């Protein structure tokens, strides 16, 4: 049954992904086939695109990622970057003890992070599916999206029909965005077609909701695997690729984010498709946030510096960003009590 379901849904989705892969999305880049023709020639191509990805030089990527964190930013650029970071935040609570009360508070904070009118609202509030209706109602008309983790987050270790039902339920309850986890066991065993099929099936279940695909990079072990998982996720229909659940260490790092940004860049050159990026987990300081924004600017350019294409998944980052904004404005740090606790 599970196999039939996967076979039926995913075969269709795989064909659609293949078609989209050939077409691009009309944003201007000339689509190049990126090995797809080779895959067609081998026979397995009737169903799957080519998952091959370039290998990553660990030393180079870590050096470059660290180097881009050493830029000194002028005050104006810093303030603009901090406000941008607020507008790109998926304000998150993903704890077993989450309640409607906590989510309501978080929604208020996402809509009005600061009393100053020049501080924008956050991009989204990210919650478990059961709390989607609470968030949806609280955020109505505000423009702040409701994101929900699904697919048996954070392990992903439920049968596919359960994961699909999880996604459909979250969308029916009002989620605008779905954050799914990939099957890391399959990825580590080299079962790339299974990883692809599952993402394609989830994409189909999302309907109009945007799909963020969490690679859980801390469990993938190598940058090469992160790069390949990024490629598979993008081919299978991800709107965003995301580093981590926030439940595994290491979570987001500048280096792993750079690997994924480069995968997005190369995918864009190959297909014309524009994919978003979401580092998540362990991003707690304004300084870290600015570092990530420099990585995006230097790898993908200003076009990606928008909440439509870049998000921070974070539960505690907002307060530090607000504190730094106040410091830039007044020259002094506000006391910790000045900001509401997350
Ligand atoms: O997707 C977001 C993460 O779960 C947040 O992780 P964090 O609590 O380390 O900020």
From TrEMBL:
Enzyme Commission number: 4.1.2.4
Catalytic activity: 2-deoxy-D-ribose 5-phosphate = D-glyceraldehyde 3-phosphate + acetaldehyde
Originating gene: deoC
UniProt keyword terms in alphabetical order: Lyase, Schiff base
NCBIfam families found in the cross-reference section: deoC
Protein name: Deoxyribose-phosphate aldolase
Family membership noted in the UniProt record: Belongs to the DeoC/FbaB aldolase family. DeoC type 2 subfamily.
Source organism (scientific name): Chondromyces crocatus
Gene3D superfamilies from the UniProt entry: Aldolase class I
Single GO cellular component term: cytoplasm
Recorded superkingdom: Bacteria
């Amino acid at each position: 049954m599970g196999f039939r379901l996967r076979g039926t849904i995913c075969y269709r989705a795989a064909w659609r992904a293949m078609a989209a892969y050939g077409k691009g999305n009309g944003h201007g880049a000339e689509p190049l086939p990126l090995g797809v023709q080779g895959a067609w020639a081998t026979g397995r191509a009737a169903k799957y695109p080519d998952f091959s990805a370039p290998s990553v030089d660990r030393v180079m990527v870590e050096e470059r990622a660290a180097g881009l964190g050493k830029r000194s930013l002028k005050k104006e650029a810093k303030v603009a970057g901090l406000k941008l970071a607020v507008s790109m935040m998926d304000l998150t609570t993903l704890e077993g003890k989450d309640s409607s009360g906590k989510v309501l508070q978080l929604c208020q904070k996402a809509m009005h992070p600061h009393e100053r009118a020049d501080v924008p609202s956050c991009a989204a509030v990210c919650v478990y599916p059961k709390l989607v209706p609470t968030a949806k109602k609280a955020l109505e008309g505000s423009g702040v999206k409701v994101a929900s983790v699904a697919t048996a987050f954070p392990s992903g270790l439920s049968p596919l029909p359960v994961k699909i039902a999880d996604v459909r339920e979250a969308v029916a309850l009002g989620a605008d965005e779905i954050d799914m986890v990939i099957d890391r066991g399959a990825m580590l065993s080299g079962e790339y077609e299974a990883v692809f099929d599952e993402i394609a099936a989830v994409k189909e279940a999302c309907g109009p909701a945007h799909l963020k695909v969490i690679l859980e990079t801390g469990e993938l072990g190598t940058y090469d695997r992160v790069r390949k998982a990024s490629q598979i996720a993008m081919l299978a229909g991800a709107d965003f690729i995301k580093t981590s659940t926030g439940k595994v260490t290491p979570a987001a790092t500048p280096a792993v984010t750079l690997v994924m940004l480069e995968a997005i860049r190369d995918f864009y050159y190959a297909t014309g498709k524009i994919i978003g990026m979401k580092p998540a987990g362990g991003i707690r300081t304004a300084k870290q946030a600015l570092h990530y924004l420099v990585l995006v600017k230097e790898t993908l350019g200003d076009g990606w510096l928008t909440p439509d294409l870049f998000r921070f998944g974070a539960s505690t980052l907002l307060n530090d960003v607000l504190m730094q904004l106040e410091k830039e404005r007044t020259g002094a740090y506000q006391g910790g009590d000045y900001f509401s606790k997350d």
